[in-house]
Each structure stands twice: as structure tokens, then as C-alpha cells.
Design goal:
mainly alpha; 7 helices
């Protein structure tokens, strides 16, 4: 049927998954999941109350920044390019009215 990948498509997909697996093997998923789920509901509640313009995805990124993840790690987790992640962080900065000099990991750590 038309929902099945053709051979070249399948090969390309496996190649991509293989490449991704190599990257993600260097990333500790278990630790991330444990730390991310430990983030309190209060954190997200405060965030959405004080900054209602933040989207769900942006709130998630803020949570990831709170647990100390780097831009590179954010890209891996969200399956996005470094550039896309950088732009998303830039939009968050604008919505939070934070200067480029402010370290977001530290900002959220104490938030």
C-alpha cells in the first residue's frame, strides 16, 4: 500500500536512526527522564502564570533548561537542529524579557 516505505526510503530511514542512535547513546536518557519528571508542577504553574504567552513546547524547554541541559542536548532530545533550538531559545528570551547575557540555566535554576 501507499503507507509503506519503498526500499530507498527505508534505507534512508535506517541510516538516520543509526546516526541518531550514535548521538543519543552519548546522552543519558534515564537520568534526563528522572530529573525532568521531578520538576514540580508548581514550576510549570508559576511559569504559565507569569509568562502566559509561552507555548507548551517553550515551557518544556524552560524545564529542560532548569535541569541544566545545553543547547546541544536540547537539540538531541527534541529531534531538532541546533539552529532551530537556538531560535526557540531566542524567542523564550524575548518573551521573558531577558538579556543575552543572562544564563538561562542559572535563571531557571533559581526560578
Amino acid at each position: 500500500g501507499k503507507n509503506h516505505l519503498n526500499e530507498p526510503g527505508r534505507a534512508a530511514l535506517f541510516q538516520l536512526l543509526d546516526k541518531y542512535e550514535k548521538i543519543s547513546n552519548t546522552f543519558n536518557w534515564e537520568l534526563f527522564e528522572r530529573r525532568f519528571t521531578q520538576l514540580s508542577a508548581a514550576f510549570f504553574c508559576k511559569l504559565s502564570t507569569e509568562y502566559p504567552s509561552l507555548t507548551f513546547t517553550e515551557q518544556r524547554l524552560c524545564g529542560m533548561l532548569k535541569i541544566g541541559l545545553s543547547l546541544k542536548e536540547l537539540s538531541i532530545i527534541n529531534f531538532t537542529s541546533y539552529n532551530t533550538t537556538r531560535k526557540a531559545i531566542y524567542r523564550i528570551r524575548k518573551k521573558l524579557n531577558l538579556d543575552e547575557k543572562v544564563d538561562l540555566n542559572i535563571f531557571f535554576q533559581y526560578y
